[in-house]
Amino acid sequence: MSSRTPEPTPAGPTTARVNDRELRADARRNRERVLRTAQQLFTSEGLGISLDEIARRAGVGPGTVHRHFPTKEALYLAVAIDQIRQLVAEGEALTATGDPAALFTLLSRMMASGAENAAVKSALTAAEFDLRDAAPDAAADLTHQVALLLDRACRAGVVRHDVTVGEVMAIVAGAFAAIRHADADTSRERSAHIAQIILDGLRPRPR
């Protein structure tokens, strides 16, 4: 019987693929953790917080943040796009409920998200970033979800029939400006109140 220690078996293609998938999944989770942490910190502490501090709060190394987001502007843009994608997911969930008034829920969430991320959007505007150009697919997906909910709301008679999805999206964009003009973007209660006033204009007019 041989006393030689067996040499380790080289990792085959299947093992390499599994490890690669695990690494990609881990990188994805780290990126999402950084995005969520950055969004919360930008809202609560402002845009001055450093990338290294965001890394510390997210529980990842500074290199992880700098690798995914080499500049502050890149992180701002990623946070804003991530918020759009979260809204798309919320729209899909609301579409599945069958609730004819779900349009108002999604629009309220969109307005709240805009108020929460007002500083980030201002920074992107200052850097001459347009989200519709930077993330056309995400923007189109969100518009599509709004269109589906608007169509259902119109058929159910809970929204006036003379409004288009383009007008609804413009109303949401205008709501961001109204909330900021009223200095209400740091107050969920006040921003929600202004949003409700604006959304009431979409309801059917009394006959």
From TrEMBL:
InterPro entries referenced in this protein's UniProt entry, alphabetically: DNA-bd_HTH_TetR-type_CS, Homeodomain-like_sf, HTH-type_TetR-like_transc_reg, HTH_TetR, Tet_transcr_reg_TetR-rel_C_sf, TetR_SbtR-like_C
GO molecular function, one term: transcription cis-regulatory region binding
Region of interest: Disordered: 1-24
Residue ranges flagged as DNA-binding region: 50-69
Residue ranges occupied by any HTH tetR-type domain in the UniProt entry: 28-87
Keyword vocabulary terms for this entry: DNA-binding, Transcription, Transcription regulation
Pfam families: TetR_C_43, TetR_N
Name of this chain's protein: TetR/AcrR family transcriptional regulator
